[in-house]
Amino acid sequence: MKLSPRPLRVVLVAASSALTALTVMAFPGPAHAEAGRGPEVRQADAASTPCGFFRYKVRESEFAAYNHCGETTVRVHVDVRGGGSGNDYHLCVSPGPTQLPGAGPNYLNAYYIGGAGCRSGDRTGHTPH
Questions:
Q1: pLDDT tens, 48-69?
Q2: Burial code of 74-111, b = ≥16 C-beta within 10 A, e = fewer?
Q3: How many CA atoms lie less than 13 Å away from 91 in the CB half-sphere?
């Protein structure tokens, strides 16, 4: 039986829509930090969340997060919009998704820079790497 390209396209669109909906449901809103810790993590099904920096929406609000797919804590460089590198910082993240504080549009990117074994939630100012 030969399938036409049209049904395959419909299946791919439906799968993409389901993944987007799952990501939005997995991150229902902003997380709040506990005293003495960095940004709190909202756990989600790691298989449904992309590795690295990503954005997601809840209603009209946009958020940004970093999903670390490894098994240890690592340090990431967080690239903040405006102010050059003076606003950027380094953040230690645990495996899984970590929501970045504040509004998603404030962030340009976040990327791995090493530092395996750092203390989760530790935040330092930007240093050359």
A1: 788 999 999 999 999 999 999 9
A2: bbbbbbbeeeeeeebbbbbbbbbbbbbbeebeebeebe
A3: 29
Residue 49, classed as helix, strand or coil, is: coil
DSSP one-letter code for 3: P
Q: What is the mean pLDDT of the chain?
A: 73
Query: Is the pTM for the entire model greater than 0.70?
Result: no
Residue at token pair 């590795």: 51
> 20-37: per-residue pLDDT in tens?
433 433 443 334 333 334
Residue with tokens 């993590």: 41
Strand partners, 93: 74
Residue of 22, 24, 26 lying closest to 58 (CA atoms) = 24
